[in-house]
Write a structure and sequence with these properties.
- About 35% of the residues lie in helices and about 30% in strands.
- With about 110 residues, it is of the alpha+beta class.
- The chain has one domain: 2-Layer Sandwich (Heat Shock Protein 90).
- Strands 1-2-3-5-4 form a five-stranded mixed beta sheet, covered by helices on one side.
- Strand 1, helix 1 and strand 2 form a beta-alpha-beta unit.
- Helix 1 packs antiparallel against helix 3.
Length: about 110
């Protein structure tokens, strides 16, 4: 894992949503991926934050899981949308999964 210093980057009232998404992504790896390797990277970028959650596990068809409401993916996406960000998912059977989260933070400076 790698985590840049992000203290005070995300306003206190918003940071719980960010941390819960990261937590759910890690939880999904333990519960579903059967992975032997995983990584979490959280970086400060211009103009915001970028997080990647990766595993080398079993993978899945994202459309099947989103349509079935599985793995908490829709909840993760909803939380990121409340932060003004985007969540993208790349996964396929036997190829592992990568979740990429991008959150702009410039508008938070005036909040």
């Amino acid at each position: 894992y790698h985590v840049d210093d992000i203290d005070e980057v995300v306003p206190k009232e918003k940071e719980i949503n960010f941390y819960r998404v990261i937590q759910e992504g890690i939880n999904n790896i333990f519960k579903h991926a059967q992975a032997t390797e995983a990584s979490v990277i959280i970086r400060r970028t211009d103009p915001g934050l970028k997080a990647m959650i990766w595993d080398n596990g079993t993978g899945f068809d994202p459309l099947d899981k989103l349509n079935a409401g599985g793995l908490g993916l829709s909840g993760m996406n909803e939380r990121i949308e409340t932060l003004g960000g985007t969540l993208s998912l790349n996964s396929s059977a036997k190829e592992g999964t990568t979740i990429t989260i991008v959150i702009p933070i410039k508008e938070w400076a005036v909040s």
